Amino acid sequence: xxxxKYLPLFDAYAPLLTEHQREVCDLYYMCDLSLTEIAxxxxxxxxxxxxxxxxxxxxLDEYEQKLHAVQAKRRNAVAAGLAEAFKTAHPEYSSEMDxxxxxxxxxxxxxxxxxxxx
Length: 118
Hints:
- By secondary structure, the protein is an all-alpha fold.
- Helices cover 81% and strands 0% of the residues.
- The chain folds into two domains: 6-67, Winged helix-like DNA-binding domain superfamily/Winged helix DNA-binding domain (Arc Repressor Mutant, subunit A), CATH 1.10.10; 69-117.
- It has six helices and no strands.
């Protein structure tokens, strides 16, 4: 069973992996190929695929522990949801909440722009 917690980590930190690690992770997580299918496609052993995935997961965990990009994105999403709920419940503060939401959306846009540059 695939540990899908690595999908957002892979999205955030894939540029920090080697080309080989990115390719194996992409085939495994994004294309949903089995270890055997990846091994056949890459011309390597199934054990090598398994080792590459294990090393990649370890690196992704380390990057998140140091950089917290995925955690920050989740916190921003929660904050935006709370701000939207407050805006709906208190329309008299609509303009103030729009400013807060714009700041959160700008932060998310900057994060995504930065990630696409890597």
